[in-house]
Design goal:
The chain has three helices and 31 strands. The chain is mainly beta and 560 residues long. The longest helix has 35 residues.
């Protein structure tokens, strides 16, 4: 066991040394002339937490006491070449992150070359086709997501306004690779640049199309599963002056998987975005329909593992702790939704606008089930090994997943004081979004007051008051925060969330936090101590479960 551990660390050290040689060898070969065209940049982040036992809030015991997530990106470019790598270390992964991240290594490394109209990338890369309905490779550290491709990426621009993309490779799965191979091709055409008769038009047109396929060997003992599964997309975008509208449709051939209970049914998705914006007024409307669009390079994967595509949300992305207590997670197996947002700025000097003007934003969104009906009386909806169900594209189902109404008023009260008041009403289906079977729909009312007072000598004081009222789930919450900033270096904050409405008296707990931070140039240190409540955090409709925890947290970030 000891010899195996030593061998593991030797291999990691050898990998780092080899990477350093690759990065630095041009310096030794070409000396000062090379340095004139050389550019090196990167960033570093470390999150480490010392966990304190806290059985009152249900915090799990941490045997190691200290857990840590960290990474460092190093990139270099020289003329038409660029190189990069990311070293990651999880000792061990912090609570709420998948334990399969445990360990250290270089899971991301690439070399790229650009010549005339062609760009070639070998190794790791991120890419997206259109809005991501059939392909999106990306990372989000806050969610613990990184499905980077490892393979070859080509981008070819033969003429101005015409772009072709091709990708092939495997997806990252923690420190390993997923079992499937992904192949994709995509094109974007800016018609105004390609068609001479449109070059002077005030209307701008962009069209695009793409196709992605995955290969995974079939070794299932029960079902005859397709080894090659393809998905295609077509999209169009029109803009003229203050008006923009875009639409994208995607279709995926039948893809039996753990997500859809191994049914043989095609998937489809439609997303429409439109906006109109002029001085003092803005209107945004987004609509979508998703049916059986889970698409992974491993048909047996679940959670956030090995997603090939991305299904954008049509709900508001909340920034406050209590408005974000019930975030919406996109339902890949089927949902229909719409979002509308109206922003109006009342002119300064008017009775309602005041001396500096007032901005009012009203937002509404809803997500609902889609219509599903039995194919035959003897086949239940979603029965494995069958086509699953029939669905009328323009018909809604009977179950509401999520609904919210938001009103926000922001105003500069004086030259040193500005504030924001907001109200949100949220309906949240716990059974669908969090996977329960016996929970009732949450009806929550949340109000927020957020004020910033600028003080002399580049100091400022910000405070928040929040209240969430609900009779469901864990009951009502109150929250207060005060933050003192000494620009550009220091900040100090104190906050508390109080679950005073919990029906279980022992769970009427305070979730307090005290924090301080220091920034010097491009480096930032933050140290905090307190409690973290159990819950779900979501970014862009993708979510991660966060367990309860108490302890001391250190965050360090730096760029160069």
């Amino acid at each position: 066991m000891k010899n195996k551990l030593i061998k593991t660390y030797v291999n990691k050290l050898r990998l780092l040394i080899n990477a350093a040689i690759i990065f630095l060898s041009p310096v030794f070969l070409y000396g000062g002339d090379f340095l004139q065209d050389l550019r090196i940049w990167g960033d570093f982040q470390l999150d480490a937490q010392y966990y304190v036992p806290d059985s009152i809030i249900g915090a799990p015991e941490v045997p190691e006491k200290i857990l840590m997530n960290s990474f460092a990106n190093i990139n270099m470019s020289y003329k038409n070449f660029s190189f990069g790598m990311r070293y990651e270390s999880y000792q061990n992964p912090m609570l709420g992150y998948d334990p399969r991240y445990k360990g250290s290594g270089i899971p991301y490394r690439y070399v790229s070359y650009t010549q005339d109209m062609l760009e070639v990338t070998a190794g790791s890369f991120y890419e997206q086709f259109g809005s991501g309905l059939i392909f999106r490779s990306y990372e989000d550290k806050s969610l613990g997501i990184d499905n980077a491709m490892d393979g070859i990426r080509l981008v070819y621009r033969p003429v101005n306004g015409l772009t072709f993309k091709g990708v092939i490779g495997e997806q990252r799965l923690f420190f390993e690779k997923g079992p499937g191979i992904i192949r994709g091709f995509d094109t974007d055409i800016i018609l105004n640049d390609v068609v001479s008769s449109l070059s002077e038009s005030k209307s701008r047109w962009i069209i695009g199309a793409g196709i992605v396929s995955k290969y995974q060997r079939d070794s299932d003992p029960l079902y005859n599963l397709p080894e090659n599964v393809a998905a295609g997309t077509g999209r169009v975008r029109f803009s003229r002056s203050a008006f923009n509208v875009s639409a994208e449709y995607a279709h995926k051939v039948n893809d039996p998987s753990a997500d859809n209970n191994f049914i043989y049914k095609d998937g489809q998705a439609l997303v429409i975005n439109s906006s109109y914006s002029v001085s003092g007024f803005g209107l945004l409307i987004t609509a979508k329909r998703i049916d059986n669009m889970a698409f992974r390079s491993d048909r047996y994967a679940t959670g956030n593992d090995l997603n090939i595509n991305y299904l954008p949300p049509t709900t508001k992305q909340h920034i406050y702790s209590l408005t974000g207590m019930y975030p919406y997670a996109t339902q890949m197996t089927g949902e229909a939704g719409i979002l509308g947002e109206l922003t109006y700025r009342i002119p300064r000097g008017s009775t309602l606008g005041g001396q500096f003007g007032t901005t009012i934003t009203v937002n509404y969104s809803i997500a609902n089930s889609i219509h599903k009906e039995q194919i035959h009386d003897t086949i239940s909806i979603g029965q494995s090994g069958t086509p699953g169900y029939k669905s009328d594209f323009f018909r809604l189902g009977d179950e509401k997943y999520f609904e919210d109404i938001n009103v926000e008023i922001s105003r500069r009260i004086s030259r040193t004081l500005r504030g924001k008041l907001s109200y949100a009403y949220i309906e949240y289906n716990q059974n669908v979004i969090e996977g329960y079977v016996d929970k009732e729909m949450v009806h929550a009312h949340i109000v927020v007051a957020d004020f910033l007072h600028r003080l002399p000598d580049r100091k400022s004081l910000r405070w928040e008051l929040q209240h969430l009222f609900t009779k469901q789930d864990n009951g009502s919450w109150a929250m207060a925060l005060i933050e003192y900033n000494i620009s550009p270096n220091w900040f100090f904050s104190l906050s508390n969330q109080y679950n005073y409405g919990n029906e279980v008296k022992e769970l009427q707990q305070h979730y307090y936090s005290v924090a301080a931070g220091y920034t010097h140039n491009a480096t930032r240190f933050e140290l905090s101590y307190g409690r973290q409540r159990e819950g779900v955090i979501c970014v862009g409709g993708v979510c991660r479960y966060v367990p309860a925890a108490t302890g001391l947290l250190l965050n360090v970030t730096s760029t160069f």
